[in-house]
Amino acid sequence: MSPESFGLNAIGQISICVKDVARATTFYRDTLGMKFLFEFPGMAFFECGGVRIYLAVAEKPELDRTSILYYRVPAIKEAAATLEGRGVAFVEKPHLVHQDATHELWLAFCQDSEGNTLALMSEVPK
Q: What pTM was computed for the model?
């Protein structure tokens, strides 16, 4: 894909900051009836029509009570380079955050023109 034709067009994940992950997990799973996928300490993940919902306590005070849109991209390093070429400054460059027997999960974080955090995500098969 050329830099000129690149554009974000698929949301892969939405992060929702919560105060109590266990309580929120019960609400999203049992009250809302969302499909529970998996959890890690302090995190829970759900399926919602092809978009993953990620519940966690905010890692930084400035992110408390915000949501983060994670845009799914096939090649995260190239996508980040293209956006940097368009003037986007990344707060966190593409980096590996998780891997298992079948894939690697890469993330990168930037801000939009209003200071909202956005993320790129790429799930790379092994």
A: 0.72
